């Protein structure tokens, strides 16, 4: 189902995203970190990773909240960093590919 520029994936997300990446068009955007991000990384479907680092910690978390868990794979290169007036730092990483010599 597509609404404006949004596609809701209602089937296997890895197969659906692999299919979308083969089509011409704009970037595919994924917000958030969790099992889907780790699965995309493991399948080599994550081209860019943006981490927002906030200058404070609030609440509690579990090991499931971590981006990299045992079994996760991905190699990235920092391509940009932006510091917002609030102190939040946005780190943008590009995925390293085998053809990059990495």
From TrEMBL:
One BP annotation, GO: riboflavin biosynthetic process
Bacterial bifunctional deaminase-reductase C-terminal domain: residues covered: 12-89
Stretches assigned to coiled coil: none
Gene3D superfamilies according to UniProt: Dihydrofolate Reductase, subunit A
GO MF entries: 5-amino-6-(5-phosphoribosylamino)uracil reductase activity
SUPFAM superfamilies: Dihydrofolate reductase-like (SSF53597)
InterPro entries according to UniProt: DHFR-like_dom_sf, RibDG_C
A Pfam family assignment: RibD_C
Protein name: RibD C-terminal domain-containing protein
Species, as recorded: Actinokineospora iranica
């Amino acid at each position: 189902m597509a609404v404006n520029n949004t596609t809701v994936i209602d089937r296997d997300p890895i197969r659906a995203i692999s299919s979308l990446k083969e089509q011409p068009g704009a970037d595919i955007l994924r917000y958030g970190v969790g099992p889907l991000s780790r699965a995309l990384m493991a399948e080599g479907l994550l081209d860019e990773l943006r981490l927002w680092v906030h200058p404070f910690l609030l609440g509690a978390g579990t090991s499931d909240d971590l981006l990299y868990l045992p079994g996760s794979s991905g190699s990235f290169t920092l391509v940009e960093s932006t510091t917002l007036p609030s102190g939040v730092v946005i780190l943008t990483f590009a995925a390293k590919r085998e053809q990059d010599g990495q």
